[in-house]
Amino acid sequence: MSFHFRYREGFLPAFPKLEGRLVKHHLFPQAADLARWFKAQGIKVHDWTMVIPEHVHWRIHSGSARGGLWNQAWREFRDTNPTRRYTQEELLAKAFELAFRFDVVGPIIPYGRSLVPPAGPQLFAQ
């Protein structure tokens, strides 16, 4: 779990220690059916990737065909109300809910950007 605090109030973000090979996990899946749906909702899937350990990425995308448990969770969400138009805030809230459920956490950066060490102090949980 990550904790996001406001720097101006004197708090620092805390992330678990990211070890091993790191990969960028799309919070909004790239699978063709889901990518089309996200685009129609106004979401650019490559703008929202979370840097996580590769073994965690394998875990959340395993369990079934077509993208594993992560993608299945998004399909179930989409299919509960397929004609509804969601706001970006609602979809981000769902993405973070899924991140909590699947126990994934890391910095969020657009897919095309390289991961650079954060400027300033950071706290890491052990």
UniProtKB/TrEMBL annotation:
It comes from the Bacteria. Pfam families: DUF2380. Keywords: Lipoprotein. This is Myxococcus xanthus paralogous lipoprotein family TIGR02269. It comes from Stigmatella aurantiaca. The lineage of its organism: Bacteria, Pseudomonadati, Myxococcota, Myxococcia, Myxococcales.
